[in-house]
Design brief:
Aminopeptidase; four-stranded antiparallel beta sheet; 2 domains; eight-stranded mixed beta sheet; alpha+beta; 272 residues
Length: 272
């Protein structure tokens, strides 16, 4: 079988086709997965998806596995990796990941990141065998309801670029890929500021998603973040985050009316 598997770059398919292929390859994954073409487009554009570096592996002309590569400078990331159920357990994952590592080295990349859901023991074992090391745990949160009582303060909508420029200027060090400034300003979301020092990025929708939170360094530990989270829950009932936040922020969210999402991830790194 292996000699009949060939790869082609994702450049050969459009966003709607790629979404279908990815969903198809993720069948029987540890968590249900479904992605629409329109969502695929804005999501992976915001993550700096490089279709020319993202292979789709075909067996007898049919897509059977897929890897989505995102890149920033000399750092790349495996944004998604999936193999059809009938091809799993045959050692192909190791072969495909090695191909991705070899391609990253050939490009001159220095660091290779990925995220893996806790509970995906097979994936975690594969990545560790291939040289990836867990760096931190990423978590998500769900609002447990609109907080009681009134809260003073006004959320002012601003240009998302204004928020992300302040984040970059603060030079806090690297954030997880999905909540980094380089991701946030490309999202179809709205940015808000409270008292000119506390910022948030929300993607509205049936389930509104809080994608970024930032407080100016001089205003930290003054209650601004908690006040901002309270105002956001009044503005966006049912607010959630995706599991992309460092576990260190849990005390803030749990004390602000949120509960911890059951899905957690490891952020893993391979130094090339």
């Amino acid at each position: 079988m292996r000699h009949e598997i060939v790869s082609k770059p994702a450049l050969n398919w459009n966003s709607f086709q790629l979404a279908e292929i990815l969903t198809h390859c993720f069948e029987q994954y540890v968590v249900p997965f479904r992605l629409e073409g329109e969502t695929f487009g804005w999501r992976f554009v915001s993550e700096d998806f490089f279709p020319g570096d993202s292979p789709i592996w075909l067996y007898r002309g049919e897509p059977k596995a897929m890897a989505l590569i995102t890149r920033r400078g000399q750092t790349c990331r495996l944004a998604a990796f999936a193999i059809r159920p009938e091809l799993r357990g045959q050692g192909l994952g190791k072969i495909f990941i090695q191909q991705l590592i070899d391609a990253a080295r050939a490009r001159g990349d220095k660091q290779f990141y990925l995220e893996v859901i806790l509970g995906n023991e097979g994936g975690l074992a594969l990545y560790e065998r291939m040289g990836f090391v867990p760096k931190q745990t990423l978590v998500g949160f769900q609002s447990s309801g609109v907080p009681e009582g009134e809260v003073d303060g006004e959320l002012l909508e601003i240009d998302p670029l204004q928020m992300t420029r302040r984040m970059i200027a603060a030079n806090d060090g690297p954030l997880p890929w999905l909540c980094a400034a380089e991701t946030l300003y490309k999202l179809p979301g709205k940015a808000f500021v409270l008292d000119e020092v506390a910022y948030a990025m929300v993607v509205p929708g049936e389930i509104p998603k809080l994608r970024g939170l930032f407080v100016e360094p001089h205003a930290r530990r003054s209650g601004k973040a908690k006040k901002l989270l309270t105002l956001l829950q009044h503005r966006f009932p049912g607010l959630v985050t995706i599991p992309s936040l460092p576990e260190t922020v849990a005390p803030l969210f749990l004390s602000s009316g949120f509960t911890l999402d059951k899905i957690r991830q490891y952020e893993m790194k391979h130094t090339l």
